[in-house]
């Protein structure tokens, strides 16, 4: 999927590491854990926050002691965030948008081989909205929903047709 924020890279030696996220840089919430075994970790936040947000890595040693790596600032300035449901789908996919302004998006359903099966232009209103895409005519299988907007910003969503 593809809604994507910057990966958080770091190098460390630890037993386990917790990745934490914050909207204000003060109050952090646990979002993922990374097991020991590699010296370089990366993490992609698929539930990204809109705007500026912060990440930190809590290093937990085998004896329970912990330290924090420096806080990383990420600015997600994208003008639109989208999510897709249900997945898997039988007849209709709902695409939920949160847009800072009204924009047009090209919507394409791609086969597993990358061939365009369906194509539409949607006008997405400002704020939160939900658009429906009828997929009942598709064969069972895996597909990609490609959402392309101004400045060629793209989101890719994998979905399964039942």
Report on the architecture of this protein.
It is a single chain. The protein is built from no helices and 14 strands. It is mostly beta strands. The chain has strands at residues 10-11, 16-22, 29-35, 40-41, 51-60, 66-68, 72-76, 80-85, 92-99, 103-110, 116-124, 127-134, 141-148, 154-161. Strands 2, 3, 5, 6 and 7 form a five-stranded antiparallel beta sheet that branches. A four-stranded antiparallel beta sheet has the order 11-10-13-14, with no helix packed on it. A hairpin with a 5-residue loop joins strand 13 and strand 14 (154-161). It is elongated and about 55 Å long.
List the helices and strands and how they pair.
Blueprint: E1 10-11, E2 16-22, E3 29-35, E4 40-41, E5 51-60, E6 66-68, E7 72-76, E8 80-85, E9 92-99, E10 103-110, E11 116-124, E12 127-134, E13 141-148, E14 154-161
Antiparallel strand pairs: 1-4, 2-3, 2-5, 5-6, 5-7, 8-9, 9-12, 10-11, 10-13, 13-14
What structural category arises from helix and sheet content? mainly beta
Report how far the terminal alpha carbons are from each other: 19 Å
Main beta-sheet strand count, sense and barrel state: 5 strands, antiparallel
* Average residue pLDDT: 79
Would you summarize the structure shown here?
The protein contains no helices and 14 strands. By secondary structure, the protein is mostly beta strands. It is elongated.
Keywords:
5-stranded antiparallel beta sheet; mainly beta; elongated; 162 residues; 14 strands; 4-stranded antiparallel beta sheet
């Amino acid at each position: 999927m593809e809604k994507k924020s910057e990966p958080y890279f770091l190098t460390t030696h630890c037993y386990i590491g917790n990745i934490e996220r914050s909207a204000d840089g003060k109050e952090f919430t646990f979002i993922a854990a990374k097991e020991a075994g590699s010296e370089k970790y990366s993490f992609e936040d698929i539930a990204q926050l809109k705007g500026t947000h912060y990440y930190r890595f809590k290093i937990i040693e085998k004896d329970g002691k912990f330290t924090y790596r420096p806080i990383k600032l990420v600015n997600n300035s994208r003008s639109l965030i989208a999510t897709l449901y249900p997945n898997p789908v039988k007849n209709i996919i709902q695409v939920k948008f949160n847009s800072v302004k009204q924009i047009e998006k090209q919507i394409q359903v791609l086969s597993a081989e990358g061939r365009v099966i369906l194509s539409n232009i949607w006008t997405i209103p400002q704020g939160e909205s939900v658009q429906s895409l009828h997929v009942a005519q598709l064969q069972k299988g895996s597909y990609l929903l490609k959402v392309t907007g101004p400045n060629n910003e793209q989101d890719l969503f994998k979905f399964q047709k039942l």
